[in-house]
Structures are given as C-alpha cells and as structure tokens.
Amino acid sequence: MRSIQLKNVTKSYQGDIIINNLNLIIPEGKFFALLGPSGCGKTTILRLIAGFETVNSGAIYLGDEDITHRPINQRRVNTVFQNYALFPHMTVFENIAYGLVVKGVHNDEINERVIKVLRSVHMEAHMHKHSKNLSGGQQQRVALARAIINEPEVLLLDEPLAALDIRLREKVLIELIELQDKLKTTFIYVTHDPSEALTVADQMAIMSNGGIIEQIGTPKEIYEFPQSSFVAQFVGNTNIFGGTYQEFEDQPSIDIPNLGIFPIFVPRKKEWMIPGKTIVMSIRPEKFFITKKEIDGFSSRLKGIVEAIVYHGRSTQYNIRLENQQLVQVFEQNEEHFPQQVIDYDNELYLYWQKENVVIVER
To answer: Could you tell me which of 30, 235, 258, 351 has the fewest CB atoms within 10 Å of its CB?
Structure first.
C-alpha cells in the first residue's frame, strides 16, 4: 500500500477548467472519501489517478513514484465503476479470474486466488452463476473481487453503491469497511452522498465546484467543526445565522439582528475577533434542546412557532419560525413511546443550546 499525491494538478475539457492547480495527499492504507456535488471534479480526480485521463499540468505520485504519464496497466491501481462493468456472458469465477488469465498466471494459482477473494466478499456459493443473473449487491461484490484480486496498492471506487437500494447500501458499506480493514489497501471512495462518506471514511475531502478542496479531515472533524458555511450545509443539516462579533459581559458573542446577543465558544484568540466584524455561525439541528416551558441552565435561548413536523422514526424534525421570521430545523431523538411533552403545529417553543455547540464558519 502506498499514498497518492497530486501536485499542482490542472485538468480542463474543451477550455473549461475542471481541476485547477490541485494539491492533495491521500495517506497510505486509509479509507479516503472525496465528497462533493455533481460536477465538482471528484470523478475526474479518480480518472486521473487511474490513468483514464491525462493531466494538463502537474504530477501524480504513487508513494515516491511519478505515475503521471504511466500506462493504466502499469499503475498498480484498480477501479470499481458505478455500473460494475462485468462481462455478462461469463460466470462469477470467470469474471474475477479474467485479469489473471490475461497475465498468463498458472491455472492452479488462479483457482487458489479466486477462491480466496470469493471468500473475502462472501460470494463462493455463487461462483458458477453468470453475472447477469446476480442481484445488484452480488454484482457489486463481484466487481470488488475482480478489482482486488490483482492486489492493487490503491483501489478506486466511483460511486459504487449508486444502483443499490438504501437497505442494501447500508449493508454493503459495512462490508466495504471490513474489507478495507482486512486488506489494508488504500481506498479512494467518490460519492455525492454525505451519509456514505461519513460512514466509511477514515479521512475525507469536501469539494466544491471548480475542483476546490474546501476542507480535509476525519468525518467527526468535518461534521462537528466545518470551516465554511458550504461544508456545514453540504455535510448534514445545519442552521446558519449571520451577525457581528461582540464582546458582551467579557464573553465572545454574536449579535444577530432582531434576535439578540448570544455567547460563542472560541478556544483561542482569532484574528477576526474585532467588535463589529461580520461573522456567521452554524448550529446543527440536533444540538438544540426544545421545550414548551422556559428553563434555566442554558446560556442561549430563542423562541418560535412550529410550522412543520416530519417524523423520521428514530428522530422527529421540527421546522420552527423564529421571531425574526428565520426558519430553523430542530431534530429531537424519539427516545420514548409516550413522550412527556407532545409538540404540535403552531405550538410556541423555546430553543436552548450550549455555546460550545456553536461553530463560527465564516468571517
């Protein structure tokens, strides 16, 4: 296993710049996710690493080895495509063995390696079936097996679960995590689905249009401490409030027009901490505590009216109109069959939160 590094990589199509002077290091042995909206350049990065596309400028390294202009079959990099690209006229065994047959590997070794990889993806019972007769989840496993049998140093996965239903997708995500942990191969996973990236990744990069890397970090760092409003809103739901920085009663605070002044938690002095400076804060919907009654013990409070209620099973989403007419989302965990307070449309609610749950995302 080796790391992947892109140095000053630029790629354009017919004059349109897709990736512009990109620098990115993907650590060896990690499950790394590239997450962003459609058209931001995620798949282009994968195709450049695989060798299906060539860079306009810059370089790509596999470890210390420059592979920028190396042929596809010499890169030690394999790809699992969104449509799996299996041979429909071949059996599962034949699909997986195909690459080894082309290389001229001895039959005994082919049998041994194919059986081993079939077991790793739990498909040994289906080895004699034709791929066209498999379910979507089974085809996905065969595509994975075919990709890993050549023991690549990097495995590229281009939205491999897009064709699966949600329940099967959740199951296969766990299987992917277990497989990567067993193989210790560097996985690079492209998706536009934040929940997939948060589930599988050791580390992830959030991309915006124009091939810009907005933030790199662990899933927890990205979700809990987004560095921009784009990241905060793309990775999960959040509530954005604009205001100005103030120091109220010797505490760092944000003054939100028509709502009030609220304390914020800033672990160390920042250059933007100037009274009157425009700042933007993010609060995740689950960070609010909602109640019909006023209570003590919280540093911040808002009041609003319930406009919509969406039941999600494990949680309930409330859309609440504040006194300044801003609409916010609040998630409440459904912990009890018969909750003590029943919230209905047009109820007046109080929203409380701790200052530690506020993240300043723009200055």
So the answer is: 258
pLDDT at 164: 77
39 touches 91 (CB < 8 A): no
Query: In angstroms, rounded to a whole number, what is the distance separating the alpha carbons of residues 316 and 191?
Result: 27
- Largest Cα span, the chain: 78
pLDDT band at 247 (very low <50, low <70, confident <90, very high): very high
What residue ranges define each of the domains in the chain, with the CATH number in brackets?
4-234 (3.40.50.300), 239-362 (2.40.50.140)
Q: Positive or negative, the Cα torsion across 213, 217, 219, 223?
A: negative
Radius of gyration of the chain (CA): 25
